[in-house]
Amino acid sequence: MFFRQFICKEMSTLPVIDPTPPDALSAAALVEAVDAPTGDAAGEAIHQFLLLYRYLRQYARQIDERGIRPREFSVLRFLHETGAATVGQVQDYLYCSASVASTVISGLEEKGLVTRTRSPEDNRVVIVTLTAEGGDAAANTPLGGIVLLRRRLRALPPERLAVINRALADLLALMEVTESE
């Protein structure tokens, strides 16, 4: 029940969120929320999956309304937190191909949010840097979706991450999703 209330609250407001996991999201609270007795455990699992799916779609729409695509926002936050990065580092962060990373960066460059320059040490390497406008967009856009998930996952202890990874692996297998998709 708590998990459902948390997701619904997040979907309706999408405030700027503190990146540290709140006490309410402790392992015990999540286990209690997920393991609450229901008549249909499979139905509850589907319900929670759909809550997450809807939340991510709603957050993506809200980011889109600001004129920034969700992947673009991910890159802005990445550069905001780490500083300048190579196209390869952006590619690794997004878990995408070089052409997709380059397309996302091109879109940001066209909007005046990033600049690309050649590395003085190696002309083959392209460095991506936030502009002042890109830094403002990264700092002033509500944190949510995958960007928030990345931040919160980094704060979890390894044993909780292992449980989450096993559950996600089970979902991928049940839905017959392969790495190439």
Describe the structure.
This protein has 181 residues and is mainly alpha-helical. It folds into 2 domains: 2-7 and 23-66 and 142-174, no CATH class; 70-140, Orthogonal Bundle (Arc Repressor Mutant, subunit A), CATH 1.10.10.10. Helix content is 64%, strand content 7%. The protein is built from 9 helices and 3 strands. The protein has helices spanning 2-13, 27-34, 41-65, 70-82, 87-94, 98-110, 132-140, 145-154, 158-174; strands at 85-86, 114-118, 126-130. It has a 3-stranded antiparallel β-sheet with strand order 1-3-2. Helix 4 crosses helix 7 (132-140).
Number of helices: 9
Distance between the termini: 32 Å
Which residues form runs of ≥5 with pLDDT under 50? 1-25
Rg, alpha carbons: 18 Å
The number of domains is 2
How many E strands?
Answer: 3
Q: What is the helical fraction, as a range of percent?
A: 55-70%
Main sheet properties: 3 strands, antiparallel
- SSE order: HHHHEHHEEHHH
- Strands of the biggest beta sheet: in what spatial order? 1-3-2
Could you report the average pLDDT, rounded to the nearest whole number?
A: 83
Shape: globular
Would you tell me the structural class of the helices and strands? mainly alpha
Strand content: 5-15%
